[in-house]
């Protein structure tokens, strides 16, 4: 039974043990990534790129450079979330193709003005976009009855070579998705509200 958003957030834990025999259907994967690509991005530049790794041989190679973590090979799909750092300068009118000519001209000019010469901003934007997409993937997967594990314990350069990462892209993180074979550990603890939520100022 599908979960509402609040339930998905409260129930989600990092799955460490997946059923290696379970396979997601293509339709399920299309649904998962189709919704992820509707997450917001600044100026609508859609700078996330999702590499769905299902090939067993490739996943074995990735596991070898990911601290031998079983989630890499045992999940139904290993998603490598990448940021196209230069998306801001690639045919930018297509990001606003459904808008009026006036809006297109304004937005493409604003995109160029905001990002050009600001390499740290370009990179930070990719990190933000992929972070929002990762959250959407994990919550949607939970609502579909799947477990997930966000991961950054791997050799980024080595994985980049294995997936033929373009030079102007950066790997942000993995999200392993599959059927839980063992209940995840309960949450390690939640900080008190007054330590993390503030009104107006610290």
TrEMBL record:
Keywords: Oxidoreductase
KW Glycoprotein (keyword) present: no
Record domain Nitroreductase: where: 9-179
Family: Belongs to the nitroreductase family.
UniProt-recorded name of the protein: Nitroreductase
